[in-house]
Amino acid sequence: MYVIENLLIGIVSGLTASGIILFALYRCQPNIEISPYIAKHTTSDGEVQYGFKFLNKTRYPICDVSSMVQIRTSVNVGDGKIFNVKGLMKGSIWHVPAYDKKDKDSHYAKRFYKAYDLKAEWSDGDAELEFIVMAKHQLSGISKVTKHTWYSKNNSIQVGQHEIGDSLEVG
């Protein structure tokens, strides 16, 4: 009788400890929010730039941040689809500070702008645009990939620049 009782206590305590560790690991991964809008901005030189923004909503800094913008076009073949991918922009940042509402300079928010003719590159219908951000949680070292996909340029590109701070809007 004692053997079964000890065995059940061991199993329950092991499952509880595993659950606590999994919960802690889940909480120690990057939490990134990507703006649902692409900003279209014209510089004083007349150059058209497109911008993407993300926020580090994690309570800890993130590091080794890589971002990429790519266009995916699909081609129907046989019984499925093949995606052709064309990279438009890549960027990397070593460190993004933790989320802090008191940070008046919004160091936890990052914007990427690049000059190119996105409207010519991206055709509605069979193509979609993706913004992918990969980051590593500084405390745990756990990486996470976050992405946002736009299917139509008419609803996603807005004239202006991304607003400063928590806002993901274009103003």
- Annotated CATH architecture of the largest domain: Sandwich
CATH class of the largest domain, named Mainly Beta
Name of the CATH superfamily of the largest domain: G protein-activated inward rectifier potassium channel 1
Stated plainly, the CATH topology of the largest domain is called Immunoglobulin-like
Low-confidence stretches: none
Tally of helical segments:
3
SSE order in H/E notation?
A: HEEEEEEHEEHE
- Estimate percent helicity: 10-25%
* Structural category: alpha+beta
User: What can be said about the biggest beta sheet?
Assistant: 5 strands, mixed
Number of domains: 2
Radius of gyration: 22 Å
- What proportion of the residues form beta strands (DSSP E)? over 45%
Number of strands: 9
- First-to-last CA distance: 71 Å
Q: Average pLDDT, to the nearest integer?
A: 90
Please, what is the oligomeric state? single chain
